[in-house]
Amino acid sequence: MKIWQVDFYRRPSQDASGQILWELLICDATRSFEYEATCLQSAANSNWVAAQLELAAGEKLPDVIQVFRPQSLSLIEVAGRNLSINVEPTRHTLALKQWLQEKQYPSALDKPPPAPLPENLWGEQWRFATLAASDVETRFSDRPIPILHIPEHLKPINLGLASTVPVPGVVIYGGRQSMRLARWLQQARPVALNYISGAPDGLVLEAGLVDRWIVATFEDPEVTTAAQTYQQRKKHCRGLHFLLVQPDDSGMTYSGFWLLQAED
């Protein structure tokens, strides 16, 4: 499968007459393929992007274009639709962000303050948990879980983690709301679940491209200690962690499982 990482955005530089330039950057995950082109802001539209994609592709267009910047997404989606290319919004465009950093272009995005999770979705209780790295995939792969998100690049074996390393996570017991919560999370596209210290402390879900949601708040010292341990364990397994939604603690039924990785 041919996958490109693409960014299209206005740049700090200007042309000789002082007009704003937009730059299109295209690369693959290894940066063995790179393509760049610029245009004036007046020409920055989906037709120009589509034409450049065709020029960059040569005989074979990509199957998937990955986009991390919300401001680029709609233009690239239109261009992709015109060329029958699937466009995937994702924060996981490491090669492209590295290239932007080398060019000294900003790749950090403004993120809104976290919003409360919709009340009608919240479960009955939650807890911190761990799984041995060897169990992360095998424990759930043969279970009939309606929503299962285990990306290939996040499998512990592909991150070089020893089988005994404890992978931290959060389990939410959703009760009757369990499937509704799991479906909502699937649409929100979870990226990472982080402990944030404050007054009160909380768990914040990073989702989509820039979305942030308050999953839980707490002031109990024991829970805070557990949260700090959870955050430390993430550091020991390259940011890997999980989110599990199930109706209750019987271990019989699961609604959704996501393998996540904290952003750098």
TrEMBL record:
InterPro entries, A to Z: Tab2-like, Tab2-like_C, Tab2-like_N
GO molecular function, one term: RNA binding
Domain RNA-binding protein Tab2/Atab2 C-terminal as annotated: residue spans: 106-261
All copies of domain RNA-binding protein Tab2-like N-terminal, residue ranges: 3-103
Name this protein carries in UniProt: DUF1092 family protein
The organism of origin for this protein: Nostoc punctiforme (strain ATCC 29133 / PCC 73102)
